């Protein structure tokens, strides 16, 4: 296992320390380094707090900043943050307008964010939006339902913009509950991931194999298939996603091609080129695009395709200024 | 070789088409798809044109836009653009104030940009800035001198900002000739790269080996060494760089940790954390930082460290607004 780390025990803390130092104009650590928050908390705004296991960087810390999250709590690799971390983040960012928790649908995350919400309920107004954007077809039978994957970027961006414009907690909760189910993601892996604690690949693929329908925790996907040209792979991903999306309101498509950790930009753009053509063939107008490495699974080689059908209001919220480490644009 | 491509012949064109489609608000293709240029050419401004082989994305196309390049010409993988491509880019972007060519120091690039400058000389005022930022120690004996690598990002950003502020051609040439020699880069590879045309790795490394002093074309580096913890690797890179930099004016350090294609963000931030500490131990104040995948070598796993000592003016030019696909910030 060749990785740029020192020890498995210290890698998350060292990487986070580097992240905060590199973006000290945007974020700060809390005093105990339990979470990362915006340098400038905006009084009167609803606080947006998210988090989850490490190993998915730049998610979520890379989305802390003006127009997106107020704080992000990271656990160890593929491990939920503790309720205590989350409570501290709520306390540090809620200036009275309440706090919206944005949670990816995994048992551990759901449980710990719920527990934190209960622990803070006597002092803070709290609502939760759950993200579960993987396609139905990606799912082996799971009690917990669709997993939350790269769609988190879209939810955090759009709710972050609405909060920045002054939307109250109830409005943000309703907006999130309406938006999240309209996002669909499907991923493909060319390699498994090596978890530093075990120094083993979570699954092994042959030189001509790929894994379809993977999540972001190194778990095997839905099917193992022979490797194929990019057009074939993207057709399968896109057509599965499109079949799982509502049939109406297809005029504002947002297409995200997300690298899972070790896929270079040139290949992501080539995949985008294929995906856009295929998606538009199905009558969805791609109005906005994002191509890059945003939600990773450690050093996995692979990518995911996310498609979301936006309303006109959501399109304007997507376009609103944002200033975070991983997503940044102006008016 | 598992890559998201269709054929080796079409991969560059397809990836570029995806890039332009994804960033259609910032860039356009020229009508023959020979180069990528800013959507809005600013009349009266000196035109900045760069380019080189493909396989280094987002360099250079990702740096086309307001505050950076006016056009970028890409050749095939690791192959210079033709003089014809470059002449067409000069013609499309020079509105009368002249054109500055920014060229990485490789024989093929130098020759073709020189030939283009001669071909266009009767109709355009042209100057050239050459980038050769790899450390002396990285060099096997080479007639052409230091190679141009990740330092290109810094030269293109700072000259781009100066051009946007209205600096005339002679000033930009002097600024570039002064800045470029104050940038030093050194890279390390954990894997070779697979060139799609040959389907072979350019060099093979064992599971416990790394290659020190690599460039960005898959050529072997200076030494093959046993793999070590991140702190040891970064100490070697940083100390070699620092020893090769001027001893004075160390108050405005700019530190760039660049992924070579397949290194995930979390590891780049961990490397930054180590590098910053080591660099500051040597009396260089790190005032600005950039961590990400900016200048790649196809799917190479590895990273490079770049350090540059800026003047106060250059610091302000670095901070100036920029709106490109790969680098974007406001006032």
List the helices and strands and how they pair.
The structure is a homodimer of 331-residue chains.
Chain A: H1 11-22, E1 27-29, E2 36-38, E3 47-54, E4 65-66, E5 71-77, H2 83-93, E6 99-104, H3 107-120, E7 126-131, H4 152-164, H5 169-179, E8 183-189, E9 194-195, E10 200-201, E11 209-212, E12 223-226, H6 230-243, E13 253-259, H7 265-281, E14 286-292, E15 302-309, H8 312-319, E16 322-324, E17 328-329
Parallel strand pairs in A: 3-5, 3-6, 6-7, 13-14
Antiparallel strand pairs in A: 1-2, 2-5, 4-16, 8-11, 8-15, 9-10, 11-12, 13-15, 16-17
Helix pairs in contact in A: 2-3, 4-5, 4-8, 6-7
What does the model show?
2 copies of one chain form a homodimer. Chain A has 2 domains: 168 residues, Rossmann fold, CATH 3.40.50; 140 residues, Hypothetical Protein Tm841, Chain: A,domain 3 (2-Layer Sandwich). With 331 residues, the first copy, chain A, is α+β, with helices and mostly antiparallel strands. The mean pLDDT of chain A is 95. Chain A starts with 10 loop residues before the first helix and ends with a strand. In chain A, strands 1-2-5-3-6-7 form a 6-stranded mixed β-sheet, with helices on both faces. A 6-stranded mixed β-sheet of chain A has the order 12-11-8-15-13-14, with helices on one face. Chain A is globular. The interface between A and B is large, with 59 and 59 residues.
